[in-house]
Amino acid sequence: MNTKKKFIPYILFGYPTIEESYRKALTFADTADIFEIGFPYSDPIADGRVIVDAARIALKNKISFIDYLEFIKKLKDKITAPIYAMTYYNPILKYGIEKFMKSEIDGFIIPDLIIEESGELLKIAKKYNKKSVFIITPDTLDDRIKKISEHTTGFIYFVTYAGVTGKNVKLTKQIIDKIKKIKEIVNCDVNIGFGIRKIRDIDYIYKYTEADGVIVGSAIIKNEITSETIKQFKNAKLATPQK
To answer: Which pLDDT score, from 0 to 100, does residue 3 have?
Structure first.
């Protein structure tokens, strides 16, 4: 195992309450290399059933985008890992791109924003030194990967399948080869997400792929992967003699 590989937990703001999501985020303070903090959205395109259902519960708490950014600011006082906002584009537009970039976020992931429509946002992001993340799927062609990488200042978010989150991951040879190919094209980290449900999935990715890290969302919401299981996993790997 490459101990430098990253672990990136996805925490859904406001689920099941603001206080509970804050406490859950803090449990990962010692194990997370990057935090991905999701803003609940009523009409998501990339979220599967687990996150959609959790978001509906969060939205019943009558949370706002201002609450979301205040939550991130509060977290920044307690943790040292970078925090990336995971949100759809419409809430940012309503709130104001410049105000969003002035917030305490370190970077952002906007699933419904394509590079061809990202010019204004990226210009403002550069002004405030905020890192951009774009998504690549197994079907993304090499020339498209290159174009996406030219707009990426944070990391590439590689999803194991096209569609929505929450399905079981299938790390086929084609996926492993695709990650290797992406790494040959881009000059930034490539982190892998979608369908990582078990510790053994993380172990496999760390051992057999060239991905720089893993992103875990639905399994954290369902408590299938917790801060404690990540600590145990990391400690066990560090205690194992490396060949």
So the answer is: 53
